[in-house]
Every structure is written in structure tokens, then in C-alpha cells.
Amino acid sequence: MQSAPPAAAAVKTSPPANIAKKHQTQAGRFYRVNSSKSSYTELWRDTRSPAVLIAWIAKILRLKLPGSVNDPNVVSLRPFVVRTEDVPTIVPDDVIQKMAPMLRELTELGFGKPLYFWIDDRFHISRTAQVVLLHREGRSVARVTHRAEGAGYHKHHFFCEFLSALSDKRILQSSSARAQEFVPDAVELVWKYKSSPSQLWIEHRKKMDELRAGGLKFYSIPNRKAAFTVAERHHHAIRDFQIGRGVFQPLNEDELADIETLDRHSEQAASGQARHPDVLAHLERLQLKKSNPVSSLVVLLVSIGVFVALGMSVWGGGWKYILVIVGILLVHEAGHFIAMRMLGYRNVRMFFIPLLGAAVTGQHYTAPGWKKVVVALMGPLPGIFLGGIAGVVAMVYGNDTLSLLALATIALNALQLIPVMPFDGGRVMHTLIFSRNYYLEAIFQVVAVIALIGMGALAGGRIMTGLGVAMLIGVFHTFKVAKIASTLKQRGFGHVIAGALHQPTAYANEESGVPAATAAAPPTAPPTAPTDEPPVLEYSNTPNTSEFDTADGLIPQPVAEAIVDETQKNFPNIKAPKMVAEMSLRVFEVMASRPPGVLASVGFGILHAASFIFALVMVAVLIVGRGPNLGWAMGMPWDMDAGQVPLVVDNIQNWSSTDEMIGDTVRATNLALADEDDRAVSTYQTLAINFFDDAAALKGFESIKAAAPATARLMLFGRTVLLRVAKDDSATTDRWINMYETTAETVFMIDAVEGASVTLTVDTDSVVAPAVLESSLKSYFNNLELPLIPPWSAGGPLDERTAEERRRHEAARAFALKLNGVEVYDDPVLDPFRKKIERAARLNQDKQIQKIRAEMEAKQNELIAAAQQKIRDDAVDSELREFADVFIAFAAEQRELLKTISVIEDGGDFEKRYAEYDKANKALQQRRTAALAPYMGAWPTAEDEDDETAERRRRLSARYGFVYSEDSNEKIQVSVSLIDIMRGLPALLEWLQAEGATNPRYAIEQPYGGYYD
After folding, report:
1. Residue 204 reports pLDDT greater than 90
2. Is 14 helix (H, G, I), strand (E, B) or coil?
């Protein structure tokens, strides 16, 4: 019986350099393991937990997860044989100790003459120790395998196997492995998971007897050389099987270079010239890594495609909206890209981040602070400059589309100048100020997180809030990295870096690189005899000693080792060498960073602030120039024509299938529609198509007319085509939406509730009384709760009032506008109440504030009532005074009713009180309408006329409206939503022209987003 294997040494010593070198990773002797080619069953055997779902998803997506397999992913076992006397210096003590009990059990079963293998696969972070033992009968060998993998080699596989060579060239294999892979036909497998060596040996012997009964014989295995031949032959069979199905794949050039780097650093560590070989190897590869321009372009294009697709589905807004954003982001990131390339950054890549934006990454770990500031500013500044030029041109020539583009460009780039990370402005402030001390940096990071979360909460943006939370998670790491860098600088390593930035050092550079291994093609078929040796890959392991400048090359080795020491000390949970290397690289970048000098910092700060202020001013100017909303609210002058196009009245056309051309004037067109179309608004839908010019609109009108269904109606209004079809006729609307969504300016369905937002501007030079015209519109829009007859219905067949009745109604409407316009909020009588509220607010007396506000409101109501009464008393016309009495009485009743839902709680059920208020208020409004309508001119109630007439009259009315005018009274602008745009809009235009208005301009838009453009 053979003796047991040598016991573990009491104290582990470093192996001699020549022995260690023999068993290091050898680049040309390994294959890459592609786990996505393994079967679902094999992946389950490897995990045996719900975590297998991750592996299965990775397989579906063809992602290559890191890992190894039981049978080593090597070309041959021969280079990894360890002499028995070298085992204590090569195989770790804990592995020897774990294998010892199993080896003793095998010795008792008659196995001896051990043959050791040690395979250190740093590329896959896997270490495999194998012992092959020959049985005294000479027909079988036992193999004990211990495989450790993963970061820190924390995951262990330990099992026993038996191998016997059959006369039909097959190998009988019995295994107790947990993660047993599939085997080829050349292997007869007996798999007994978790069985002991004794149990497995019984099963193996049973199978041998069974095969002998079938007429097969077993080769004799007389010595250790023959035992190795059996193990090698089995390995060849498994190896070729794995190659054939893609689990084993040849290493590419980059992977070969990675392993060569690992080999070189391992040699230096073995000879005592370096520490942390695995981390230093990854650190070197990270610094020398070169991006592929083709793959970078593919990533950019694919990321743009994903950005556009997700943006369309989440944001809406149509193709133009998304493409404008993409264009702005491209210009912005191109500024970063060009600056990086010009300032010596390497591996510069641009890509889009769906729903967030875009980014440019580059590598320059020793870039001085002024370069980082220039790179940060070169993103937003060109966009602001170009947007400013476009904005000025847009305002000079009145180009609304260019104005919108300029506004969006400046606004998005101004946002990037906000001095909060991760915006460009935050990077500038960090480099100029906060990078000088890691405590300041940490405070800056926390403030940035709070600002991001706050902005996200105020704007309702979950993405920005999520970004802030993600940054919060990284604040601790950022602080520790900065602290490590500061500690190393204090120990003098900062001076080493500063000196090395201008001194050549003996390390490989990216141009010359590390010589890649060259390999013969892997075998595609098993060898013809057990003694055949596989081809051996030749490789070069000689380090390149070309000189390089540290600013563009590698970290000096003493600095790198010190950084790794501190990184592992401060981040003990980070085990994987590559992750340690990445963190160490972050530390080095902070150490090498040099903030600009005082004068440069002041200059950059002024440039940053001036650019931000200029951007804000341009945004304000463009917003004011685009329309009335913001500019009018701020009391600033604005361009009333912004966003509108000229309207040629004679070109307006209406079409229906029953009458090819209804009239040749606006009045005839409008009246014909009023007489013929009696359908209820709820029975049809209207599509609006805004074209870029009149010619395109006319062409579109003719195209739609030729294919429109019999029940359709069409209107050509300037550059807009309006198509009305039955509510359930989505096929017609979808057809024209699909046709014009990319060729027209905007395409949208007019909402049945909100309608379309119509803006109509006219010159009033020829209007006899512009103020009266404006008052007529305002008094109508301010009383839309009453079914008043619109001013533009005057003289039409549906307005049966006499001229005198219309005059009296207009007078009452103007008087109501005056009564409603009473404003007493600035009355000095209310000042004491305001002071009391301010004092109560300082003392945090909420109940007192509510009480004072109620008293103040009561006083306001008294002032309003008094002012309205004075207006009533000053009126000369007795009918107007009578109207005012009714109006004021209902206003007082309304104020009293509001008191029933005062903010001051009285212990009652608020919901119940509000329901009672709502019921009483509806009754009040019905009485108010019945009382005031005769004075102000309202449509007859529904019960007083047939349904068709009521519907035609209702469709002339508006949902809401506003009127604006210049101080010079040279222009009037009407912004209105009409219940029936195809009927009401021509009537409104006709009425304005009849009053003397000229030179109409218009715009038809949706009141909110959702364009199909």
C-alpha cells in the first residue's frame, strides 16, 4: 500500500522563483470560458438556488458571466504538473489540509503514487488543485479536485472522480461533483452527487463489471506516466467537446495581452520586485486599454436609437421634439468630445443615456485642473453661443421655429451650468474650489444630492430624484477616495507623482504595448493515442521597457503599490482584483489632480458666471418674444405676432361631399355650414394639420378631398387643413396622421373637451372704436358661465335680436365687466390685517392666521360691495341701475354662500358641508342665469327651441377666451377655444373684418402636449 501524500508544511514559504514561474498563468495555454454556451441544466447544477435565474437570463441575452468549469479550460494538463517535493511550496496549505482526509480514504482503498497538478487561472479568477492516484490493480485512477473561484476565491468545489480507459477508446468516469457538466460520447459517465470516495468506488466497480459483461476490456495502467496519459486523454475528450459547443473559446488579442501582463507582474512578485501582482496587472491594463473606434461608433448609434425609442414612448411629443433634443445633446457632447481630444485625453467615447441625456468619457488620469474646467465648459458654452445667435436671428426675422430651437438649446445648456454635481457647472465648481479639501468635497457632494432630490421633487421628476439618491450612495466612497489621496499626498507620494509627470519611466506604453502571445490552432479532434501531446502555445513574456511620459502612461510602481495598500485597507469588502484596480485608479486620479492657480480660478469662475447669466437673459428675452403668457404677466413688452402666420382670407375654402365648393367668401362659407351641419359636437372628431406653407396646405387639402369619405367636411384655413369625420371613423384620421406626421409641421386631434387653442391677431388702424371692440370681446369671455350670444353671431341667421336689443345687451355686458373689475386688495384699510397675519406667521399661530384672514376677507367683501354700489349709483341709465341691483344681489349671495366652506373648521363634516355648498351653488347659478340673461343677451334655453337649432347655436360659442391689445391700440389679439372651430373661427374672423380689422395672422395649436409631429 502506498504512503499518504506529504503533510502540509507548518509555515508557508514563498516558492523559489524558477518553480513559481513554471506554475504561473501561461497566456497561450488557456481558453476563455463562455458560460452562455452551457445548458440550462448545467447552470442549475452550478448554482442550485434562485440565483440561477440570473445565469439563465444571461444565457438568453448571450452575456458571458465570469467563472470556470470542473475540467480545466487548458490546452493540456502537462504544463501544470507539480513535482511531489514542490507541492508544499506551490499548493496552498488550506487546500492540502482539505484534501488530506479524502486522500487518506483513497489510500485505504488501494490508491497511491500521487501525481499533482496546480492550475492558477488568474484570467478567470480560478485556482484548481488536482491529485491523480493510481490503483494497485492497475485498471483505474482516482482524481481529487479542489477548485476555488470568484473574488477572493470564496466559492469552492471539492469532489472525487475515478477514471478507467476502455478498449473502445472511451473513458469511464465516475464523479461526485456538484456542478457536473455534460460529457461527450467518448466518456461514459456515472454521476453520484455528494457520494463519498468509498461509495463512488463501489459504483465505479459495478459499472466496470457491467461493461466487462458486455465484452469490453480495460487498459492496464501500470505506472504514474500511464495514469497521466489516462487523465490527459480524458481531458482531451472533454476539451474538444467544450470547444465544439463553444464553452471553450480561443483568447483574443486583448485577452492574451491581459494574461501576459498578469504573467509579468507575477514574475516580479515571485522575485520580490513587486506586490499585488493581480491588482497591478489589472491596473496596467486599465491604463493601456484602447477603445475601438468602430465599436464606439456602434455604441453611439445604438444608444441614440434606444434614446429616441424610449423618449417617444415615455415623453411623447413626436419625432421633431425628440430629434431636436438629440441634436442639442449632440452639439453639447461634441464640445466635450473635441475638447478632450485636443487636450490629450485617450479613449474618448460618446454615448446616449436613455431618458437622461448623453455623456462623453475619456481617459487622462493626470489632467491638470484647468484642462478639466475647459472640458466641462466646452459642453454648454458652444450651445449657448450658437443658441444666442439663432435667437437673435429668429427675433430679427420673426422665425418662430428657429426661436423655439434657440430657446430649447440655451435652456438645456444653461441647466448644465448649474453649480451642482453632476452638471457641468458642478464639475467646474468642484475643480476650482471643492477639490482642494476632501471635507469640502464631501459637503459639496451632499449639497448636490439635496439639490437634485429637491429639484426632482419640485418638478415631479422621478429620474432626477433617483439620480440624487444614486449620488447619495456614492458620497461615502467619494469621501474615502479623497481621504486616501490626501493621506498619500501627506506621506510624500504627491511629490513622486509631480516629479514623474515630466520624467521618463521604464514601463510599457500604449503604442508599443505588451507583446501578444501567438498560438497554434486548438485541436479539433481527440489524439489518436493516449500518449499524443497537444500542441503547446508559444508566447513571449518579456516586459517592454520603452520610455513614456507618466502623464499619458502608467502609474509609477511605488505609487501604485502604496495606493493599492491603502485601497484594500479602506475598502476591505472589495475583493476582486479588477475592482480594487478600478478604485485605486480613482485614488490616483484624485492624487494627480492639480486645481488651477488663483488667477486662473478667478478667471474661470467669472467666465462660468457670465455664461450662466447670459444664458438666463437670453432665455427670458426669447420667452418674452415668443408670446403673451409670460411677458404679459411680467408687465413686459412682447411680440403679439410671435408664433403666428399670415392669413390670406380669399384662400379660405370649405368642402363637403354634397357641395364641392360652399361659397366664395368667408360669410357665405360660414352661413352655409351653419345652415347645413346640425350634428351634435359629440358625434364627430376633427383633425388639424398645420403645414409649413400655403402651397403645401393647398396640396394637402386637395389630396384629402380626393379620398375623404362621404360624411367628411374639410376646411382650408391658411396653412391649416381641418378634417371632420364621424367619431368612430378612426381609419380615416389614422391614415392622414401617418401620412403627415413627418411632413407637416404639426398634426393633432382636436380634443372634444379642451378643443384647439386658436390665436388670431389683427391690426385695428381702421377700426372706429378699438376700445369698444376689445370691451365687447372681454365682456363675453368674462361671462362664459352664462349662455351669452357671441359678438361674432351678430347679424347671423341664428341671432334674432334687433339692433336696439344688441345695443342694450352690449351695454349691460360692459357694465358687468366694470362691476366685476372692482379691485380693493391694495386698499390701505386692509394693511392692519396684513401686519397681524405676518406677526401670527412669525409666531407659528395657524389658527390665528385663519381667523385674521376670515376677518380680512369680510372687510374686503364690504369694500367690494361699497365700490359696486357706487358704480351702480353713478350710472345714468335706469335699466343699467336695475341690472346692477340684480348683479350685486347675486354677488353678495355668492359671497355668503362661500362662507359655508370657510377654511376655519367648526367641528362639522367638511365633505358634507361642501356637498351642501355645491348643491346650493348650482341652484344659485341657475337663478342667476335666468335673472341676468335677459339683460345681457343669451341664447334661448333648450326647452324653448328644437334640438337642431340649439346645437347650431351652441357650436358658435367658446369654451374660454382672452383678449390682449397694445397700448397704442394698433393691434388686438384673441386667444380662444371654440366649441366648433370649423364654424366659429370663420365667423370670428368675419366679424373682426366687418368692424374694420385688417391683416389677420393666426395660429392653431393644442392647448397641451401630445403632438403627432
Report:
1. yes
2. coil
Give yes or no: residues 80 and 216 share one domain. Answer: yes
Q: Determine the structural domain holding residue 861 and report its residue range.
A: 802-936
Q: Are 957 and 798 in contact (CB under 8 A)?
A: no
**Which region among 153-167, 346-360, 633-647 has the lowest average model confidence (pLDDT)?**
633-647
Residue of higher predicted confidence among 950 and 373 = 373
Q: What is the C-alpha to C-alpha distance for residues 142 and 162, in angstroms, rounded to an integer?
A: 4
* Residue 542 CB neighbours (<10 A): 9
Backbone angles phi, psi at 956, to 5 degrees: -85, -10
DSSP letter assigned to residue 274: -
What's CA 830's distance to the chain center, in Å? 51
Same domain, 84 and 221: yes
Strand partners, 804: none
Amino acid at 388: G
Kindly give the pairing relationship between strand 187-191 and strand 171-175. Answer: parallel
End-to-end, the C-alpha distance of the chain in Å comes to 87
Higher pLDDT, 799 or 535: 799
Among 310, 333, 363, which residue terminates a domain?
Answer: 363
Is residue 27 a contact partner of residue 244, using CB atoms and an 8 Å limit?
no
3-state secondary structure of 6: coil
Residue 630 in contact with residue 619, Cβ under 8 Å? no
Q: Say if residue 543's pLDDT is above 80.
A: no
DSSP 696-755: HHHHHHHHHHHH--TT-EEEEETTEEEEEEETT-HHHHHHHHHHHTTTSSEEEEPBTTTB
For residue 1011, the model assigns a pLDDT of: 34
Task: Note the pLDDT of residue 18.
Answer: 45
The DSSP line for 599-667 is HHHHHHHHHHHHHHHHHHHHHHHHHHHH-HHHHHHTT----TTTT-EE--GGG-EEEETTBSS--SSHH
Residues 203 and 351 in one domain: no
Q: Where are the alpha helices (DSSP H) in 417-553?
A: 424-432, 438-459, 462-490, 493-500
* Average predicted confidence (pLDDT) for the chain: 76
User: Cα separation of 727 and 806, whole Å?
Assistant: 36
899 and 996 fall within a common domain: no
Strand order in the sheet with 645-646: 645-646, 998-1005, 757-763, 971-978, 958-965
Per the structure, how many domains does the chain have? 4
The 10 Å Cβ neighbour count of residue 504 is 12
Rg (CA), the chain: 42
Distance, in Å, from the CA atom of 869 to the CA atom of 861, rounded to the nearest integer, reads 12
Per the DSSP assignment, residues forming a β-bridge with 998 are: 763
Element (H, E) at 349: strand 346-353
Task: Give SS3 for 533.
Answer: coil
CA distance 624 to 802: 43
Instruction: Provide CB contacts within 8 A for 562, sequence distance 6+.
Output: 488, 491, 493
900 lies in some domain? yes
Neighbour order of strands in the sheet with 720-726: 653-656, 713-717, 720-726, 684-690, 746-749
- The answer to whether position 86 is within a domain reads yes
865 C-beta neighbours (distance < 10 Å), count:
16
Taking the mean position of all CA atoms in its chain, how far away is CA 494? 38
Other C-beta atoms lying within 10 Å of the C-beta of residue 499: 11
pLDDT digits (tens, 9 = 90+) for 659-685: 443 333 333 344 334 444 555 566 788
Q: Can you name the residues that pair with 361 across neighbouring β-strands?
A: 349
The C-alpha cell of 106 is what? Answer: 483513497
Find the helix or strand (DSSP H, E) in which 261 lies.
Answer: helix 253-270
The fraction of the chain above a pLDDT of 70, given in percent, is 75
